[in-house]
Prior knowledge:
The protein is 52% helix and 5% strand. It folds into two domains: 2-107 and 186-293, Rossmann fold (3-Layer(aba) Sandwich); 114-172, Histone, subunit A (Orthogonal Bundle). Helix 6 (130-139) crosses helix 8. The longest helix is centred in the C-terminal third of the chain and has 24 residues, at 246-269. Helix 2 (46-51) links the parallel strand 2 and strand 3 (54-55). With 294 residues, the chain is mostly helical. It has helices at 10-20, 46-51, 68-82, 96-103, 114-127, 130-139, 141-146, 152-165, 193-210, 212-218, 233-240, 246-269, 282-293; strands at residues 2-3, 25-27, 54-55, 90-92, 187-189, 275-277. The protein has 13 helices and six strands.
Amino acid sequence: MLGGPTAIGKTSCGILLASHFNTEILSADSRQIYRETTIGTAVPSPEELRLIKHHFIQSTSLEDPYNASRYEQDAILALEELFKDHDLLLMVGGSGLYIDAVCTGIDDLPSADPLLRAHLLERFKEEGLEPLTRQLKELDPQSYEKVDLKNHMRVLKALEVSLQTGRPYSEFLSNTRKERPFRILRAALDMDREDLYKRINRRVDQMMEEGLLEEVKSVIPYRHLTAMKTVGYRELFRYLDAEISLEEAVDLIKRNTRKFARKQLTWFRKGQKYTWFHPEQAAEIAKWVEDQQD
């Protein structure tokens, strides 16, 4: 599998590798999976998609909520079929949770209760986060000690599951690694931080030139969905709401994308599971894979 931060060049590097090994790519990107968005999610170009067959690219609708648990199930089924014709398959993406879902599995959480979630979100807006964290402490002290109490989405998720099931959210988090019937090699891409930031800034400018603002206007009916809290969309929604200028929105997209890239790098460095390469080292990655197979 090939991971790394946004804008670093995973798509082009992945295509070179897939071509070298005459194989197909499974996308591990939690936003490229939606068909209503293309520019803001940096979906591979039609030419790139013609070069190599990709899976889980614009394969579902924003109207159909998708998560890492569903991705685990769908990807494992896809791998079972694809391994019938390929000895090696390539997963490419920057969504660490989706990658881990396939590599090690994730815990089986109950399906979301839309009414309960809406109620908790309304409470958060009216009361703030502190009353919700106090309630979480009462219902699930273990999650209270571990969760990022400043991240309202994490707090709401733990509280939602605890209230919905009558069991502490922490009981669902077994952290039990699932065994897979295939070997997994993990590579990740990195580069000089300033060079990465320049790539991010250029990509944002290019997205705006390609029509990102018009794309954001087209998905206004979906703006309440979690998938639309994505960098690039939420800032332009603020512009459309006349909260900030277009120039401020673009600057915010660049800044928030850089921040997101740093979070991705932190995730991939966690546990020292990855072997690191520069995005222009596709040949070196291919040799590394071949050496591991000997």
